[in-house]
Amino acid sequence: KTFHWPSPEMDWIDSVLYEQPFFENITANCAARDNTTVAAQWIRLAFHDMSTYNVDDGTGGLDGSVIYEFDRAENIGMNRSIGDFLGFSAPFFSLADIIAAGVVIGTVSCDGPKIPYRAGRIDATSSGPLGVPQPQEDLALLTERFRKAGFTPSEMISFTACGHVLGGVTQQDFPEVLKDRPFVFFNEKTRLFDNGVVTQYLDGSTTNPLVVGVNETMNSDLRIFSSDGNATMQSLTSPNDFRSTCASLFERMINTVPRNVALTDVIDPFDFKVGTARLSVTDDTNKLVMTASLRILNPKDNPNREVSLVWVDRDGTSPCGEKCTSPATNVSQIGTTLLTKGHGKTALQYTFMVDNIDPAKSIAKFWFEIDEKDGSPKTEVKNDDGSGYVVEEHDVLYDVTRSKINFSATQANFTSLIVIAVKDEYAQDAQIRLQTFNPFLLPFRTSVLNATLDPQFPKAAGYSFFSVSPEPLTNSFDVYYGDVVPNNLRQKFGLVFEAKNVGVLPPS
Ligand code: HEM
Predict the structure, then answer these.
(1) Is the Cβ atom of 173 under 6 angstroms away from ligand 1?
(2) How far away, in angstroms, is 268 Cα from ligand 1 center?
(3) Ligand 1 in contact with 243 (CB < 6 A)?
(4) At a CB cut-off of 8 Å and minimum separation 6, what does 309 contact?
(5) Can you tell me the ipTM of this complex?
(6) Does any ligand 1 atom lie closer than 6 A to the CB of residue 103?
(7) Which CATH number fits domain 396-504: 2.60.40, 1.20.81, 3.30.460, 3.30.420?
(8) Tens digit of pLDDT for each residue in 180-236?
């Protein structure tokens, strides 16, 4: 299981799911918030976003339209968690994709089952139709709402039971349901994922406010759970069956997308993952430097292992004898809860820095060698087709050595200066354009900016340096040489966080 490198798209999505602490930290260990849990808020948000689906014409579904629907009565309380989803998106990773990832990551953070994840959702640009089931509605209307969203009457029961495993009812949102307390969990015995919502309902001990509330009209869980004489609820008493039922219904929920949207294959953690190979110009030696990384899944415990990056230059030869070999400069254990608990895997990340690269010959291709130092043959990691990792671009580089990012004291804001190195022979009259992406403002913003020759950076190693400052909170960009058309794309998905110079924004 590996992608054909380079794929900045797969690299990024995989890292949000399996490597980065930032998103999962919000829900780590089934974190509590606003009386409930973050995971419960995320799952409810996804459900409400998905509820605009119309199975009859294949429109709506999980499409991020919820951001245009916060003022609806059916979405009361929904905007409490939307801020959690900002900052992770990219032109190929929509708000809807990260909301879907929230279901997968949130569920696992509360010890729930692993849910397969696909990306590729497309964000709506306006609100969808009404359609979220509400507690005061009668059984016929609730059943119709679930049918319209693609669920049978029996699935409606299981799905609602699974949805109401985590979290509960907030009085401020539903004063008709809760009269005398600020909040009640659907299952008061645990905040974690189990089937108490089913067993307590069946044995009569439940405190679920949508079952035993004083206001019968609002007891929608009771109406739904009992709608087939409890047959479906009785089929969910085995904890394992319940987990797998919920995993597949949550998977259906996050994969309910408009008919014209094609989701990717399931994105499981890759066995070997090669990160971005970033070439830039050193600031003092007139040479190039390249950083790269290799993640190994489920490595044996072996402190003697040696992992090297092997490379050849653009003459197809090697300036260091038979081949150039650079040992890893660092190794660290990485992995989110979704990787470790969800998939039962561990991972080691090896990072590399090749310096002193002759700019005239650069690096044409690299691969990795893993030597366990136990007499077994070395493992070569050479892309999915065995061809090695080919560095295509040498003339227009995202120069992370000169680029700079400035964070505000709280880290809530940041600006950047992005520097692009252009080979001198292409620099004269060059049109360097950045298509930038800001995933912190809703709806997300794309802009096209011109980078201009920057006199503060003298020519070096045969390159001239162009720079531009994107709007604050821009997290990523694509670099074009000429007009913004596919053929002119030179650097895909540069992250401003790769900039080597980190500064502080003056207080505003
Ligand atoms: C007839 C169907 C349903 C009705 C009428 C309904 C209604 C409600 C209500 C009134 C609340 C309390 C929200 C608040 O106080 O802010 C709630 C919470 C919740 N619902 Fe549902 N729900 C239904 C089905 C589902 C389904 C299918 C899911 C599936 C994912 C789901 C997920 C959740 C979650 C996770 C919470 C807890 C939110 C929190 O603690 O912040 N619900 N639901």
Answers:
(1) yes
(2) 29
(3) no
(4) 292, 294, 325, 326, 328, 352, 354, 366, 367, 368
(5) 0.98
(6) no
(7) 2.60.40
(8) 999 999 999 999 999 999 999 999 999 999 999 999 999 999 999 999 999 999 999
